[in-house]
Model the fold of this input.
Amino acid sequence: MRDAVARLVRDGDVVVIEGFTHLISFAAGHEIIRQRRRDLTLCRLTPDLIYDQMIAAGCAKKLVFSWAGNPGVGSLFAFRRAVESGQLEIEEYSHFGMVGRFLAGAARLPFWTLRDYAGTDLPRANPRIKSVQCPYTGEELATVPALNPDVTIVHAQRADAQGNTQVWGLLGVQKEAAFASERVIVVAEELVDERVIRSDPNRTLIPAAVVSAVVVEPWGAHPSYAQGYYDRDNDFYVSWEAISKERTQLAHYLDEFVYGVEDRAAYMQMQPRLAERLRAGEQFSTGVNYGF
Amino acid sequence: MATVAARELVDGEVVFVGIGLPNLACNLARRTHAPNLVLIYESGAVGATPSRLPVSIGDPALVTGSLMVCGMADVFQLFLQNGRIAVGFLGGAQVDRAGNINTTVIGSYAKPTVRLPGSGGAAEIAIHAQRVLIVAKLSPRVFPERVDFLTSPGHRVAKVITDKGVLERDAKTGELELAALYPDVAVADVQAGVGWPLRARPQLARLDAPTPVELQLLREVLDPKRLYLKG
Done:
């Protein structure tokens, strides 16, 4: 992880760590904090705790997003403090708008059209939300500009050494974000042989062709989750409310769990009971016949 | 509120579910009068049958045993924009006279008094769901005459389910008006929680109290830890 971040994430980059609740690479976010990257433009539909931590650590110049809360809990207070004091530049869409931005980026189109935003204040708040007249029907459609990140980081259940990446459970916008990106880091729970990938090709979300680096990092998504590996740490999400509310508590958290550890393995060693509490139960799918 | 919201759902409908009380309402409806309700979460789970109360909209329990899991591009383009969603549930920090919702900022956008999470999928749910149900507790702070920021337009709002009564949008005026009351609630109690002179329909419906079966399901099966239920 240290090498991948050192090599592929640079000061001033447009960075995407995607994953909708599921498979958020906290391990990569923490490594970026440890390497003290600065002036990043952080993009995600839901900034979640990981961007709250990166904002608090001073990595972010700008945030591009569509829903900035602590899912199921409340607020992201580092984000709120930064916005309410005017220290963080923001560019705000809705989820569909952000999805459209990744779709356009992945298809290498300049913008995406969607039927959205009519009657809302969002285009006034963000002048990059514009509209276009349909050349066929004359209908006025909303547009959002393509998003082509410098680097996208996705967490996955498994990948082979080349970067062929398989994901199951919630898929978010990882595929679109990866294809839109200049560089892609895949962080996997497990490294598997290429034969495993080939045995179930429909499960491949991101092909090696778009992947710059593969990092094997078990538990790298905690406190987010990996379906079939470990559950979401909802208790931690709830406790973040109090931690992020107080600057000093947040700084203490970063000192202890981010700056104070060398890597994800050390982070897990600090919390020996985590694995036992969150390890996933078993519910296997029935296989399919790929024969012909 | 959860039972009133549940009774709004018709068996077989496709419902775009939010977290919290709407999620409780949908799962209650599924276990009572609407077993064929199809629950879609913006995270991509379609036909979810969560075995535990999802804490977040992306809970792994929404995936296990669902009918389909798709990416978010499919959720917004193939389901929502395609017109496949019958009911969308929304909540908000502010709901105004026209049913417009604010989940973005209190105060001005440039210098907000309170920065709220933002739209998420709420703008497009309000625009594309065939009917929108809002669930919110009454208070003048939550129900101002006009929202500070218009995140989700109100024109598809069918009902606003509150803790004291149900408001409906008048087709002619486009204004929310009082349509139904809970047992032992007076019109004045509702007006006290609304920041504009609220029109009441001449014939107000009385909402039935939760049945013992609904209460038992809510308290013992769906939300035993009382994450969303109070009292």
Summary: Chain A has two domains: 2-96+147-278, 111-145.
